[in-house]
Amino acid sequence: DAGVIQSPRHEVTEMGQEVTLRCKPISGHNSLFWYRQTMMRGLELLIYFNNNVPIDDSGMPEDRFSAKMPNASFSTLKIQPSEPRDSAVYFCASRPETGFWEQYFGPGTRLTVT
Amino acid sequence: QKEVEQDPGPLSVPEGAIVSLNCTYSNSAFQYFMWYRQYSRKGPELLMYTYSSGNKEDGRFTAQVDKSSKYISLFIRDSQPSDSATYLCANLIQGAQKLVFGQGTRLTINP
């Protein structure tokens, strides 16, 4: 099993630009989570999906952030326009239907907005 | 007050020492208690989970939950340099979807 795949691994962009982060969950997992990690705030849940449907987006900081899951094998997190305070590591995690306590994290995307 | 509190450290101990990592929480509805390990520049990985109160042992690792005091611990025996990582506690309400993470404790085991 390849695990959760995220791309790109690193992204450096200028303030105001659009950023799109991508995630491929583990095959067969039915839940997908997007997190953001910073030194100051730790690991924060942004949004999660069950069976491709967004369930809770209360962690999305602003309307500049949006997430989609068009099918069971792909999700995107978009920031438009990006700001320096969005700089963080963004993780995607997936979870099987059974074993609801276990989430499998991807390697993360390190985003720097200058 | 955060739902899950964890001392961020850093914590530095010599190889072979017993390590104790701790979290406190405020929501008595939490039923599942997890420990995730995160190596530098990697995603967190599930290390152990415990349901309700009690102890659970896995090799050199022991997870302990005391629901009466809302206190969870992870003990590492015979610590190794390869245990150097950030350890995050995470709690879950039964039937809920969202894990609530602590801040993480950065641990270094010195050879």
Q: What amount of the residues of chain B lies in strands?
A: over 45%
Taken from the alpha-carbon principal axes, the silhouette of chain A is: globular
The whole-angstrom Rg of chain B is 13 Å
Question: Percentage of helical residues of chain A?
Answer: under 10%
How many separate helices of chain B? 0
Can you put this structure into words, describing what you see?
- The complex is a heterodimer of chains A (114) and B (111).
- Chain A has 114 residues and is mainly β.
- Chain A has no helices and eleven strands.
- Chain A has strands spanning 5-7, 10-13, 19-24, 31-38, 42-50, 53-56, 65-71, 74-79, 88-95, 104-105, 109-113.
- In chain A, strands 2, 4, 5, 6, 9, 10 and 11 form a seven-stranded mixed β-sheet that branches. A four-stranded antiparallel β-sheet of chain A has the order 1-3-8-7, with no helix packed on it.
- In chain A, a hairpin with a 2-residue loop joins strand 7 and strand 8 (74-79).
- Chain A is globular and about 40 Å long.
- The relative contact order of chain A is 0.34.
- The mean pLDDT of chain A is 95.
- By secondary structure, chain B is an all-beta fold.
- In chain B, the strands form two sheets. In chain B, strands 2, 4, 5, 9, 10 and 11 form a six-stranded mixed β-sheet that branches.
- Chain B is globular.
- The termini of chain B are far apart.
- At the A-B interface, strand 5 and strand 10 of A face strand 5 of B.
Itemize the secondary structure elements and their pairings.
The complex is a heterodimer of chains A (114) and B (111).
Chain A: E1 5-7, E2 10-13, E3 19-24, E4 31-38, E5 42-50, E6 53-56, E7 65-71, E8 74-79, E9 88-95, E10 104-105, E11 109-113
Parallel strand pairs in A: 2-11
Antiparallel strand pairs in A: 1-3, 3-8, 4-5, 4-9, 5-6, 7-8, 9-10, 9-11
Chain B: E1 4-6, E2 11-14, E3 19-25, E4 30-38, E5 45-51, E6 54-58, E7 61-66, E8 71-76, E9 85-93, E10 100-101, E11 105-110
Parallel strand pairs in B: 2-11
Antiparallel strand pairs in B: 1-3, 3-8, 4-5, 4-9, 6-7, 7-8, 9-10, 9-11
